[in-house]
From TrEMBL, chain A:
Membership in a protein family: Belongs to the sigma-70 factor family. ECF subfamily.
Pfam families referenced in this protein's UniProt entry, alphabetically: Sigma70_r2 (PF04542), Sigma70_r4_2 (PF08281)
GO biological process, any: DNA-templated transcription initiation
Residue ranges occupied by any RNA polymerase sigma factor 70 region 4 type domain in the UniProt entry: 109-159
Source taxon at top rank: Bacteria
Protein name per Swiss-Prot or TrEMBL: RNA polymerase sigma-70 factor, ECF subfamily
Domain RNA polymerase sigma-70 region residue range list: 9-76
Record keywords: Sigma factor, Transcription, Transcription regulation
Record bears the keyword Transcription: yes
Single GO MF descriptor: sigma factor activity
UniProtKB/TrEMBL annotation, chain B:
Name assigned to this protein: DUF4179 domain-containing protein
Top-rank taxon, per record: Bacteria
TM spans (from-to): 51-76
Keywords: Membrane, Transmembrane, Transmembrane helix
Source organism: Anaerovirgula multivorans
Length: 177, 413
């Protein structure tokens, strides 16, 4: 990719990348920091970014690398001070009502906790699939693992989350939402 | 839709709703990033020009300077490396009196390893972001550089990065290296980066100064992230650890010149007693005997693999070397281990068994890979098909149950 075009990646993929950084770091300050460092690193690597071949995935891979390299710096605060400005996307259903809201919030908090407790090899593909909405093939090429391995990790992650939900009393996951 | 599919869809829907995010970057942040990206692009262009100039000078200097001196000049210094990882306290420590700057290189295979320096102390890992860090933690930090003799180390973004993995760790003379190394020194870990074709690793671990009077090494080997018993030879008598010349990979050993006055034998005693849950001298002797037995069966024993015969032969050997230091229980255990190892080796060289294992692995892959989860009944049918293929249709219910248990265990992993 030509260096003078590199900043166009911010407009094209900034939103997706930012959502991913928020999930990895679980707080705004660290997410902003990681987001910024990813793009700056992208400048160094611009000769490796192919606009026609999953550039979003390449940025995600830079993000993962920076996050792993600086784990102490991006202190994992999920268990200490969870982000207070929560996503409210789940409230945007047509049948929203207050009574269901509390039940749903508890369920979704439980799911988020379950995901946070997963090993990185399951957690990262889960975020890439559900938060960044990448395909299995794009996840595979980003993480440099076979598609079959991506599928198996998604499958295993879902099974682990389901098990955790059942353990805390969400026995029937066939909800009517 | 069957129940499994329904539940699968429900989890899928829940995850989509929960993990979908409305967060987006501030416009101010985006503008700031774009500005910094442009500034960085301009700096990169200027830097590249400078690097070419410096490289030309460097090429000329090689002719007149010694290799050791050149190596020291060309790398980041340990304090610069610490700064690169944003360990400002550590960076200052590497400039201080307690730091030991070594800059010694060894080559092995196609690599050159340079031990840059080491520093130990309290609170060295503190950064502005580590709010849950214990500043009373006593740690050691070791800076190492890895280069290819011909070419550059792969950048972290490249596909080749990580293809060659290195185990780098302090080892203590006289202590079993596969027991006492960076993985077992409480807070062991590392930061790594590739800068200008040189791979740098900053290793951190619980302070090793306490072992100073025993002798400390820094070991490097290839092929994995953990200690490889094939890479080094440990002499139980002298306590020395040396690279194994027959190792199929890279292996080097450095001496870490830590001041013996910093040794703390009492702390070492506590560490070892905790590590070995009591009598570490006795435990080390037990392991030495096991290792000797294993070597004997691997390299010297010529008899049949019959338990009684093996026991008698081993007992004769051990009476000569370790009389009164082993028990009947240990003798039984060592012989059983040897028989098991032999069987494993035979299986590996039996094409039929190898083929069965491959078919089993394929079965597990098939069960895992398909997202629509199989029911219990469907898994049983698959396993029965597998058993038919390897036993030609003749197997017992017990064998089928055993195989089902193996499959379920594999699916749990």
């Amino acid at each position: 990719m030509r260096p003078e075009k590199i900043d166009s990646l911010v407009d094209l993929y900034g939103n997706s990348l930012y959502k991913f950084c928020r999930k990895l770091t679980a707080n705004k300050v660290d997410a902003d920091d990681l987001y910024q460092e990813t793009f700056l690193k992208g400048v160094e690597q611009c000769h490796k970014i192919d606009e026609s071949n999953n550039p979003k995935g390449y940025l995600i891979s830079i993000s993962i690398y920076i996050w792993k390299s600086n784990r102490r710096k991006y202190a994992r605060r999920q268990n200490l001070a969870p982000d207070m400005d929560m996503d409210d996307s789940f409230l945007l259903s047509d049948d929203y009502n207050l009574e269901n809201d509390i039940v749903k919030r508890e369920l979704y908090d439980c799911i988020k906790t379950a995901v946070n407790c997963l090993d990185d090899k399951f957690r990262i593909p889960i975020y890439m699939y559900y938060t960044v909405e990448m395909t299995v093939e794009d996840i595979a090429s980003t993480l440099k693992i076979p598609s079959g391995t991506v599928k198996s990790r998604l499958y295993k992650a879902r099974a682990l989350i389901k098990k955790r939900l059942e353990a805390v009393g969400y026995g029937s996951t066939s909800t009517s939402t | 839709m069957d129940q499994h599919q329904h539940q699968h869809d429900s989890i899928d829907l829940l995850l989509k709703r929960t993990l979908n995010s409305t967060h987006s970057p501030d416009e101010v942040l985006n503008q700031k990033i774009k500005k910094r990206m442009k500034e960085k692009m301009n700096m990169e262009r200027t830097r590249r020009k400078s690097v070419y100039k410096v490289s030309l000078i460097a090429s000329l200097l090689i002719i007149v300077m010694s290799v050791g001196a050149f190596a020291a000049w060309n790398y980041l210094s340990p304090d610069e490396l610490a700064e690169h990882f944003e360990y400002s306290v550590l960076s200052e420590a590497f400039k201080g009196e307690d730091a030991i700057l070594i800059n010694k290189s060894e080559t092995s295979g196609e690599y050159k390893f340079t031990l840059m320096g080491i520093v130990s102390g309290k609170g060295l890992g503190l950064t502005s972001f580590s709010d849950d860090y214990d500043i009373d933690t006593e740690e050691s930090y070791i800076a190492v550089a890895i280069e290819k003799l011909n070419g550059k180390m792969p950048d972290i973004q490249s596909e080749e990065y990580g293809n060659e993995r290195f185990f780098i760790s302090p080892l203590i003379k006289g202590l079993i290296p596969w027991h006492v190394n960076v993985a077992s020194l409480d807070i062991g870990g590392y930061n790594e980066s590739v800068i200008d074709g040189v791979q740098y690793r900053l290793i951190s671990c619980s302070s090793i100064e306490m072992f100073a009077d025993r002798g400390i090494y820094l070991a490097v080997s290839s092929g994995g992230d953990f200690y490889d018993t094939n890479a080094f030879t440990f002499d139980f008598e002298s306590g020395e650890i040396i690279p194994n010349p027959d190792f199929d990979g890279v292996n080097v050993i450095f001496d870490l010149p830590i001041d013996k006055a910093k040794a703390d034998p009492k702390k070492v005693e506590e560490f070892l007693n905790e590590r070995y849950q009591g009598d570490y001298v006795k435990e080390m002797k037990r392991i030495e005997i096991h290792v000797k037995a294993q070597q004997y069966f691997d390299e010297e024993y010529q008899g049949d693999y019959q338990k009684d015969e093996m026991k008698a032969s081993l007992q004769k050997l051990l009476d000569g070397l370790f009389s009164g230091e082993y028990t009947e229980e240990m003798l039984e255990e060592m012989v059983e281990n040897a028989i098991f190892s032999k069987k494993l080796e035979e299986d590996r060289s039996n094409p039929e068994i190898v083929q069965q294992q491959e078919q089993f692995n394929k079965l597990i892959d098939e069960l895992i890979i398909f997202e629509a989860s199989y029911t219990e009944e469907e898994i049983k049918i698959k396993v029965e098909q597998f058993m038919d293929s390897i036993h030609d249709g003749s197997y017992t219910e017990e064998m089928l149950d055993e195989m089902m248990a193996r499959v379920k265990e594999s699916l749990q992993r």
